[in-house]
Amino acid sequence: MVESIFDLPVEKQIFYAVLGFSWTVYLWEAYLAYRQRKIYRSTTHVPQELGKIMDSETFEKSRLYQLDKSNFSFWSGLYSETEGTLILLLGGIPFLWGVAGSVTTRFGFGPEYEITQSLVFLTLATLFSALTGLPWSLYNTFVIEETHGFNQQTLGFFLKDAVKKFAVTQCILLPVTSLLLYIIKIGGDYFFIYAWLFTLAVSLVLVTIYADYIAPLFDKFTPLPEGELKTEIEAMARSISFPLTKVYVVEGSKRSSHSNAYFYGFFKNKRIVLFDTLLEDYSPLNKAGEPQPEQPETDDVPSEPKAKPKIKKQGCNNPEILAVLGHELGHWKLGHTVKNIVISQMNSFLCFSLFAALIGRKELFVAFGFNDSQPTLIGLMIIFQFIFSPYNELLSFCLTVLSRSFEFQADAFARGMGKASELYSALIKLNKDNLGFPVADWLFSMWHYSHPPLLERLRALGNVKQD
Predict the structure, then answer these.
(1) Dihedral sign of CA atoms 145, 149, 152, 157 in order
(2) Cα 43 from Cα 41, distance rounded (Å)
(3) Which residues contact 156 (CB under 8 A, 6 or more apart)?
(4) Nearest CA to 227 among 235, 219, 237?
(5) How far, in Å, CA of 403 to CA of 415, rounded?
(6) What does the pLDDT profile of the chain (467 residues) look like in tens digits?
(7) Distances (CA, A) of 329 to 223, 236, 308
(8) Rounded Cα gap, residues 156 and 165, in angstroms
């Protein structure tokens, strides 16, 4: 069998190697997911060491939620892998390139207008991906997330949001791609340097404008009102020389009850964004759960007083929010953001350099059905997506390990600011609010978790006395 494969033409060897590696990765991921599902199914009671952290009701909810997500991931992953395999085997990529050529020809653009054909191809490919992914996204949102109490969207809002995302993506993707292809075409022997510098500039611009101009197209951002929380956030930022200019609250509750916080911006223009679902006193989901005022009686028959149910508030109180932000600002103070940018750009430069060495190899194009042409966009797809896939998997794992290390360091930074107790309780609350399951298979965790499991983070924070 092995000998017969090596007897094949080199382009066939390339094709089957790509296909074989893709399925190897899928089977490895499926095996890891199977190990984790066994944990979800078998761990039906709160382990003793978690007894003071999570009640049995929340534990069961998180177990069922994560089990549903894992089962969904299995089927969606199988579909995705099967679809990708059929596209390769049936020549879907050259077929779609031919369709794009037919479209451009109808408008008077011949084969010499390769960039125009590339943009049509890219539009058709992203449209195909959006349409085939839509049923899975609908099921995830309106079945899984809805069942477990996270979804806040209506179907109309969801579809409108999907159309808007597609339109915005095209408005960014098509001009950037056309310029990149043009740079590669005219760049000469050193085009890979110019292409890398261009993608660096684009990424910096997008990071700068995203929260101010792109994110508000989808979510409402409002300045955090004046008050104790804003004053304490500004004081904490000043204490570590963080150049904070604005603090925003994003209305994440209109689409999901999951919570988050992040900062963005370059140089002396940093902003902090808090999800409204993170703020205990701000979340509309808490206000919706508050008991309504008693209605006046309409008759003279006395009624029995009703016991008021205890409302479980979502989100964190102000000291806990400050502890979470202490963790996030720790990433900045310790240089994690800069380190990630440097690693990303080093990787980008390496990939463009290797792309320059490989783009002239005709057998790469023949392997995927392009016998008579070597379009630059197709070369980018083949080399970056298929040929580099083993390297990409290894890099992804290394970055996951590095990310976990950074998370421990950021936790230690918040502890050094005297916020260990508050961060301890905030991590527990956020885990409960997001129905995170605190028990993980060691191999699944090692491969997938960019953040350490809850128990590991709590242990690293030390024995903190809880109320």
Answers:
(1) positive
(2) 6
(3) none
(4) 235
(5) 18
(6) 555 667 788 999 999 999 999 999 999 999 999 999 999 999 999 888 788 788 899 999 999 999 999 999 999 999 999 999 999 999 999 999 999 999 999 998 988 899 999 999 999 999 999 999 999 999 999 999 999 989 989 999 999 999 999 999 999 999 999 999 999 999 999 999 999 999 999 998 998 888 788 888 888 889 999 999 999 999 999 999 999 988 989 888 888 888 888 888 777 778 898 998 888 866 665 555 554 444 444 444 444 444 434 445 678 899 999 999 999 999 999 999 999 999 999 999 999 999 999 999 999 999 999 998 999 999 999 999 999 999 999 999 999 999 999 999 999 999 999 999 999 999 999 999 899 998 999 999 999 999 999 889 998 987 554 43
(7) 19, 9, 40
(8) 14
Do 374 and 98 contact (CB within 8 A), yes or no? no
> CB–CB of 59/25 below 8 Å?
no
Which candidate in 232, 251, 280, 328 is catalytic?
A: 328
Give the whole-angstrom CA distance, residue 96 versus residue 125.
8
How far CA 287 is from CA of 219, 222, 273, 311, in Å, comes to: 20, 18, 21, 10
Asked if 364 contacts 388 with a C-beta cutoff of 8 angstroms, the reply is no
Going by C-alpha positions, the residue among 407, 409, 363 that lies closest to residue 382 is 363
Kindly report the three-state secondary structure assignment for every residue of 59-124: HHHHHHHHHHHHHHHHHHHHHHHHHHHHHHHCCHHHHHHHHHHHHHHHCCCCCCCHHHHHHHHHHH
Q: How far is CA 450 from CA 14, 402, 403, 406, 446, in A?
A: 32, 8, 5, 9, 9
Identify whether the C-beta of residue 445 lies closer than 8 Å to the C-beta of residue 39. Answer: no
What is the C-alpha end-to-end distance of the chain, expressed in Å? 65
| Residue 136 main-chain phi, psi, to 5 deg | -70, -40
- Is 363 tagged catalytic? no
CB–CB of 373/100 below 8 Å?
no
Q: Whole-angstrom Cα distance, residue 315 to residue 282?
A: 9
DSSP H helices in 256-372: 284-288, 318-333, 336-358, 362-367
